[in-house]
Amino acid sequence: MTFPPTTAGPNAVREYLAGLLVAKHDTSLDFAQEIASHWQLGRPNDLRQASAKHFTKTFGEAVGPYLHRTVQEQIREEWYGSTAARVDHWALIASFIVTLFFIVRAFRGTDSKKIFSSVQHAGLTCGLPITFVGYHDTFSPWQSARLFFGLMISILTFISYMVMLLDQCFPPQKQGEVAKVSHGIQKQK
Asked: Would the pTM of this model clear 0.85, i.e. be above it?
């Protein structure tokens, strides 16, 4: 069963629900149509967003929770079969490979600036894709963890870039220059 298109009306939703009950729960067609007839005016987007509580209220205690779980499974299968899910999957793998490259480059480096730069690039190529995939993949049990770690890596990377930018804009003074400036101030008095 494929989920009805978003432009479809309530009749398409009722047909979908009846077909789902027959295909996934081995009910008779008459029973499935009777249960599906309880769906009144909602369209496919309403079905996608309906909670388990709403399903129980609409279809009853005996059918509602099971039908909700089956509809959510169908939505999840549709998502994981989509192009967007495949792009997310491969983007995450590609970002880990590029991140690994920068981490290896940092460990092999001898110059502290190159090491710091490699670590920054690793954070940039890792944090943003993890955050994006965590936000985008609402069905994953790892969504919260991906969002948390992706945001933490991104924030720390942003802070390191800001520190680097501030160091370039306001170069630190050497100890001797500070002493000369303080003596020059005393002489002018």
From this structure: no
